[in-house]
Structure to design on (1210 residues):
């Protein structure tokens, strides 16, 4: 039976109804008239690609954001949720993607923080003494936490320090936080993004226990296997709109991938076959740790040739960032070797690597790729500010900087066409064009390109894609990382799919479908997807 | 050999221990103050300035009202005022906490030097004023070793060490302390649970003002009986080093302050020891020691000991 | 874009204004008599100050004499700020520079002027530069906060200098001062009037400002310094060595402060005084902030502070202790640090209610 959209008089059977939610941010319409219906006691999944608007929607349910328009009904009653306290008061608890935990404090302390029990006693005098002294009863806190933990089957060591705990356990603490405050509706934002498969299974057991105890669970995810595993109903979002609602047992990962990714006309750039030349970048068993000292890149190996575009597909957070940073010299690697044009650059500094002929379009342009206080001209000079054509003998060549900058911003249509304004005053799309212009002007042999068209309009995207193909035809080797599958398919000669720091397989774009690659991005190997048994 | 005996004799001299305690006292007040502020996530390096204001206000109060106790109250008020400025700028306006604190140190130096003539009629230093009387433990016997060591200490000394216990209690045993620690490590997490980050930070900074001013007051109306320009002589910074060395914990700060205090006492004893006959030309170099140690601590230990993670970062609400 | 530039100039001007206002209130408070008398007192104080700073040719010369080291310490702190380092150690770097330069200059009797003077200057700048580089190195390698390390180095420098001029480097007179420097090392004078003489030092200071301006705006080094100060992540991404730049910036900063001390020695006192702890290093902080870390702004700011300092000597005779200048400066620094305070005051901060 397909998903039935309830009438208003049935709303009291629904734990959560969000109707007509509109949320606008300065440069994007994050939620475009979204309706959500979650029955009491069900496990409901919200799926979609990055940027679909799922987190934004849930943040409004929890009071972290306020909707521009729309209504929220809890158990059929309209509620005004303007901040987390309000949400907690109506029984909503949220476990964020980035945990809100205090590292050096213990599990018990983290859970009761803000609602700590006081030391109390039978003796009235001692009692008031304890109140004035604001005595915190760690004993009571531990007892209460243990009780809840046992009740819901969430095992934790109440005295352990958060920072010593593995991520899966930390997540349990976050869940316990909500239960301690009496949450009946739990929101989990990408709960398995940081879990191992083992921890994911444990989490599912917990979710089913919660359901048995009468709680309602909403979780956001892009991992389709998990949706099938544990949810009752699914809402699919894409680009701020709801594109599908379906009971889980009536759908399949394939169908969900379709609704997530869309059947729009693919932006395929005109691309002839081009013969790649010699290897320009050789990555051999590279392992890199992320900021939390977890292995983000796990013995990755590949060869990039001049004159080809190698695309790395994958959901954000599977090690692509760390891989690119490591190759560019911005992050130390744990083991393995990186060779650029036969030179070992594994431990080289960014400047040496650039001088060897590598340029890099960074994923987080605001933090890495530009200095917002510098002028456009100065930003274009970044990285070559000490040598030709922008400087000689340590002196900046102002005229040349200006001339070249003017030429580039015209060529790449950066608006406004002013080279002396602050880089930070440009819109996001124009900033990106400026960065792309600069990195291409390096005339590199090898380019690392991460999210090159994020935030750009169709015209700009086409232009950048065309330029990249031209570069390829001029024998530049391009390593492309993108969360936009169309872009990967459009540009790449070869595609590798990255999941949890490992490659799930290599394919050619015309030999695989969007749905299949979606499954690989969600954790299946190429063989599994092709239906061949995966014997090791 | 004689030199070695002379040095060792210092440790058998009860005065050495008394000097250690009194040298540690101002440091301890300031270090505990710094602790309260930093634990909530606000860096307060203006301790030097607050101490100076406390020292001055203590003497001013004692002079004008003929009572060192009024001086004490004035000292605390001045500490609250100065730290309130820092709190307001840092918490409400996300000011650069280092620059703000530096300004306040300068303000204290300028203000105290400035007011000397208008209030006391003479520049540079004040006349002697009434001090807070020492506590005499006559029952120990006036000639005993114990008496010479701890028999006539200022009440400030007792207060300082008691405050170590109080600080420990507040930070680790109360709800306020738990929230303080949370706010200093991850203010956003605390905020999502409804903890008022800003109120807690105001509390931390004002406490640092109260405590540091007490440390300064000790120097003037607790020990010397007068105020002279810049009499704190860098003690506020040494207190910061002690706080870092003590790993931002009350007990650790106490031991670190005792260490610095002992160094100062040792320095003084050795210099005044006739048997050692240190040439007067070398003596000033001994004064360098606490500062060199501070650099080594700050340079060497900052990486190894861990301060509150959010210290120094202004907190602003999002969305 | 245009707004930005105006705001940058407006904030320090408003801060100076507010500081003077507060100082006026303080002066009113310590004045005697009724309100009218106090206002007269205030007026007298200010007129005395202006007279002392600019009222006669010798007053003007005194102001310019004071400006010389201030331009340099202002440049020192300002240059550091550009790279994101807060150099409070200009005081100690100045002392070490003056000490080293004087030691060299005292012994330069055999050298002709055209060698003695440049070499003395080089020695002084090296001493200051190395003294600052210690803090820079610690910051780059261990993350040690440069504020604490430079302040400690200030105290150490002070003690070393004291020991030197009371001990091995004393001129034999019993007062803490060094022997006089060799004549060949003395800077020639530009002007003299009655008992005041203005050395060539001011020219050197202005040349230094021009050089720093040149470095900041015309060289790759200046580019890197600014990049590191604005966004160390992007700087690293653009191939800049952040550690090296931090140390180098501190070294240059210290060299400027060392130059300030050197010029005081070879251009003004012709010896090193143990009590030279003059506060000029700290003045550099307010000068850098008022001048918004720009060499041209710094020259103007040092004129302001130099005038205040000279004028305050005259103010003393009117009954206002010269510490008033320190108070004024501290308020300026405080307001520039909390610039949002000033902006809110001027209702420029309409966006994002920071609460």
């Amino acid at each position: 039976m397909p998903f039935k959209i309830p009438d208003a008089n049935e709303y009291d059977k629904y734990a959560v109804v969000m109707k007509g939610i509109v949320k606008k941010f300065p440069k994007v319409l994050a939620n475009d008239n979204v309706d959500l219906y979650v029955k009491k006691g069900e496990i409901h999944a919200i799926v979609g690609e990055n940027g679909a608007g799922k987190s934004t929607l849930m943040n409004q349910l929890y009071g972290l954001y306020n909707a521009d328009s729309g209504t929220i009904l809890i158990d059929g009653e309209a509620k005004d949720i303007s901040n987390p306290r309000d949400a907690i008061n109506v029984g909503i608890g949220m476990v964020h993607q980035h945990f809100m935990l205090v590292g050096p404090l213990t599990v018990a302390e983290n859970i009761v923080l803000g609602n700590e029990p006081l030391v109390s006693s039978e003796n009235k005098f001692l009692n008031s003494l304890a109140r004035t002294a604001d005595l915190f009863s760690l004993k009571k806190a531990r007892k209460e936490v243990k009780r809840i933990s046992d009740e819901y089957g969430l095992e934790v060591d109440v005295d352990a320090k958060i920072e010593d705990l593995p991520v899966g356990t930390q997540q349990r603490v976050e869940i316990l936080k909500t239960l301690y405050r009496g949450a009946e509706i739990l929101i989990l934002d990408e709960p398995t993004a940081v879990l191992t498969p083992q921890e994911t299974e444990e989490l599912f057991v917990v979710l089913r226990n919660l359901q048995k105890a009468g709680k309602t669970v909403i979780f956001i995810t892009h991992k389709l296997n998990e949706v099938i595993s544990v949810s009752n109903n699914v809402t699919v979002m894409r680009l701020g709109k709801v594109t599908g609602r379906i009971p889980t047992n009536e759908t399949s990962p394939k169908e969900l991938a379709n609704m997530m990714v869309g059947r729009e006309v693919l932006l395929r750039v005109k691309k002839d076959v081009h013969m790649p030349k010699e290897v320009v970048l050789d990555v051999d068993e590279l392992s890199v740790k992320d900021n939390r000292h977890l292995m983000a890149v796990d013995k990755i190996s590949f060869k990039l040739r001049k004159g080809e575009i190698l695309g790395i597909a994958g959901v954000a957070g599977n090690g692509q960032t760390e891989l690119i940073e490591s190759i560019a010299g911005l992050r130390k690697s744990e083991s393995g070797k990186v060779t650029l044009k036969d030179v070992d650059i594994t431990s080289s500094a960014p400047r040496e690597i650039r001088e060897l002929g590598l340029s890099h379009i960074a994923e987080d342009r605001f933090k890495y790729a530009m200095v917002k206080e510098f002028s456009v001209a100065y930003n274009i000079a970044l990285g070559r500010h000490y040598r030709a054509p922008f400087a000689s003998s340590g002196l900046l060549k102002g005229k040349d900087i200006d001339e070249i900058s003017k030429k580039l911003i015209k060529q790449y249509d950066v608006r406004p066409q002013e080279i002396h304004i602050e880089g930070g005053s440009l819109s996001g799309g124009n900033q990106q064009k400026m960065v792309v212009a600069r990195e291409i002007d390096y005339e590199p042999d090898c380019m690392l390109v991460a999210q090159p068209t994020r935030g750009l309009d169709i015209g700009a995207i086409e232009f950048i894609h065309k330029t990249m193909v031209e570069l390829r035809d001029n024998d530049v080797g391009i390593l492309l990382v993108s969360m936009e599958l169309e872009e990967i398919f459009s540009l790449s000669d070869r595609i590798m799919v990255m999941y949890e720091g490992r490659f799930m397989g290599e394919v050619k774009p015309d030999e695989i479908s969007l749905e299949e690659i979606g499954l690989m991005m969600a954790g299946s190997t190429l063989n599994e997807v092709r239906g061949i048994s995966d014997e090791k | 050999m004689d030199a070695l005996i002379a040095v060792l004799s210092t440790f058998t001299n009860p005065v050495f221990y008394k000097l250690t305690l009194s040298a540690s006292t101002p440091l301890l007040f300031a270090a505990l103050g710094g602790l309260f502020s930093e634990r909530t996530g606000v860096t307060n390096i203006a301790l030097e300035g607050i101490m100076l204001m406390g020292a001055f206000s203590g003497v001013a109060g004692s002079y004008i009202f003929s009572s060192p106790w009024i001086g004490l109250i004035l000292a605390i008020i001045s500490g609250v005022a100065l730290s309130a400025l820092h709190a307001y700028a840092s918490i409400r306006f996300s000011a650069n906490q280092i620059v703000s604190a530096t300004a306040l140190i300068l303000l204290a130096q300028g203000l105290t030097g400035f007011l000397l003539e208008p209030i006391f009629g003479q520049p540079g230093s004040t006349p002697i004023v009434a001090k807070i009387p020492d506590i005499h433990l006559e029952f120990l016997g006036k000639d005993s070793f114990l008496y010479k060591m701890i028999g006539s200490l200022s009440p400030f000394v007792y207060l300082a060490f008691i405050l170590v216990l109080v600080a420990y209690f507040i930070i680790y045993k109360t709800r306020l302390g738990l929230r303080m620690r949370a706010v200093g490590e991850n203010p956003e997490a605390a905020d999502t649970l409804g903890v008022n980050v800003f109120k807690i930070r105001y509390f931390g900074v004002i406490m640092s003002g109260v405590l540091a001013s007490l440390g300064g007051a000790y120097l003037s109306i607790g020990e010397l009986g007068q105020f002279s320009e810049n009499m704190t002589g860098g003690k506020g910074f040494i207190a910061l080093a002690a706080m870092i060395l003590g790993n931002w914990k009350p007990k650790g700060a106490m031991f670190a302050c005792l260490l610095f205090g002992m160094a100062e006492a040792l320095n003084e004893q050795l210099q005044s020891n006739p048997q050692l006959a240190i040439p007067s030309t070398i003596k000033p170099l001994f004064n360098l020691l606490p500062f060199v140690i501070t650099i080594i601590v700050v340079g060497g230990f900052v990486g190894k000991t861990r301060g509150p993670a959010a210290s120094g970062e202004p907190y602003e609400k999002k969305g | 874009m245009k707004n930005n530039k105006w705001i940058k100039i407006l904030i320090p001007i408003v801060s100076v204004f507010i500081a003077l206002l507060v100082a006026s209130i303080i002066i009113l408070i310590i004045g005697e008599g009724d309100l009218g008398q106090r206002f007269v007192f205030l007026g007298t104080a200010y007129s005395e100050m202006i007279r002392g700073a600019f009222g006669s040719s010798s007053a003007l010369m005194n102001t310019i004499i004071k400006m010389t080291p201030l331009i340099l310490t202002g440049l020192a702190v300002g240059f550091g700020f550009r790279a994101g380092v807060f150099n409070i150690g200009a005081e100690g770097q100045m002392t070490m520079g003056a000490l080293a330069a004087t030691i060299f200059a005292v012994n330069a009797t055999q050298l002709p002027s055209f060698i003695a003077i440049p070499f003395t200057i080089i020695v002084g700048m090296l001493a200051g530069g190395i003294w600052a580089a210690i803090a820079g190195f610690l910051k780059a390698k261990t993350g040690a906060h440069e504020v604490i390390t430079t302040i400690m180095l200030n105290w150490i420098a002070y003690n070393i200098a004291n020991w030197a001029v009371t001990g091995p480097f004393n001129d034999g007179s019993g007062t803490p001062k060094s022997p006089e420097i060799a004549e060949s090392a003395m800077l020639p004078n530009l002007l003299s009037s009655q008992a005041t003489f203005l050395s060539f030092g001011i020219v050197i200071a202005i040349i230094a400002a021009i050089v720093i301006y040149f470095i900041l705006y015309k060289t790759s080094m200046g580019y890197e310094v600014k990049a590191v100060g604005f966004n160390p992540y992007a700087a690293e991404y653009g191939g800049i060595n952040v550690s090296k730049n931090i140390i180098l910036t501190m070294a240059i900063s210290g060299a400027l402060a060392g130059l300030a001390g050197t010029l005081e020695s070879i251009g003004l006192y012709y010896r090193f005084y143990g009590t030279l702890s003059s506060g000029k290093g700290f003045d550099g902080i307010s000068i850098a902030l008022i001048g918004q870390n720009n060499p041209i702004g710094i020259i103007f700011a040092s004129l302001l502070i130099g005038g205040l300092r000279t004028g305050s000597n005259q103010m003393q005779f009117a009954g206002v202790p010269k510490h008033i200048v320190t108070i004024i400066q501290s308020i300026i620094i405080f307001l520039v640090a909390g610039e949002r305070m000033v902006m809110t005051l001027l209702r420029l901060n309409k966006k994002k209610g920071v609460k």
